[in-house]
Amino acid sequence: MKMGFGLCAVAVLLSCASIAYAADPNPLQDFCVALPDNKFDVFVNGKFCKDPNLVVAEDFLFQGLNIPGNTSNQLGVAVTAVNFNQLPGLNTLGVSLARLDYAPYGLNPPHTHPRATEALLLLEGALYVGFVTSNPADPNQRNKLFTKYLKAGDVFVFPQGLIHFQINVGKINAVAFAGFGSQNPGVITIANAVFESDPKINPDVLAKAFQVEKNIIDYLQAQFWPNSN
To answer: What is the mean pLDDT of each run of 10 residues along the chain (229 residues)?
Structure first.
């Protein structure tokens, strides 16, 4: 598939993100190009702004999304993020994006983006994707799962903060681009957060929460839980 189509797709995703309600506050200036972190600085909802008189076109440029990510890992997935850390010009603008590469049967495991809705566009391959709703008000109901099989050209939306996943169900590599309604959407990978926190959650807590024997939790906490992004 031609990369030109991919770049157009990214533009569409960012356009959708920009007109959607986002968690990030609206900027009060044309732009606020991020400065590199200083260990003595404290910042909230973004980074310090570069002097507008020193801003150059390169501050708004990121190159390399045409390059496939390395999927030679335990999950078979690579996420190339482009947020305000990689592209300083995104600071305060409320959007970001990512390229996702999936090896055959590669998995982007259940995770959430606490600060952003995600619009995923599949460029190549076939994916099985889905998200789970938050706890329903009615205790007799269960969290609902929404899933779809995607083919090239399909777009699927994952609402902000909800647990979601993608897995390559094809025998060839898959490539997708994601647009986010935040300059810094954040990622919480569920398995990592629950079983590999530092320090670890008391196994008795998890054993009761999952209604399993403590030795099962001990086993899970002893595993290596890779992050996909």
So the answer is: 57 53 64 74 71 94 97 96 94 94 98 96 98 95 97 98 97 98 94 95 97 97 83
Contacts of 29 (CB under 8 A, 6+ apart): 49, 52, 92
Provide the annotated binding site for oxalate: 108, 113, 118
Q: Report the alpha-carbon distance of residue 12 to residue 10 in Å, rounded.
A: 5
- CA-CA distance, 90 to 34, in Å (whole number)? 8
What residues are designated binding site?
A: 108, 111, 113, 118, 164
The two tokens of residue 189 are 């990978």
Smallest CA-to-CA distance from 182 within 154, 150, 147, 158 is with 158
Q: Binding site membership for Mn(2+): which residues?
A: 111, 113, 118, 164
Instruction: Say how far apart CA 168 and CA 6 lie, in whole Å.
Output: 18
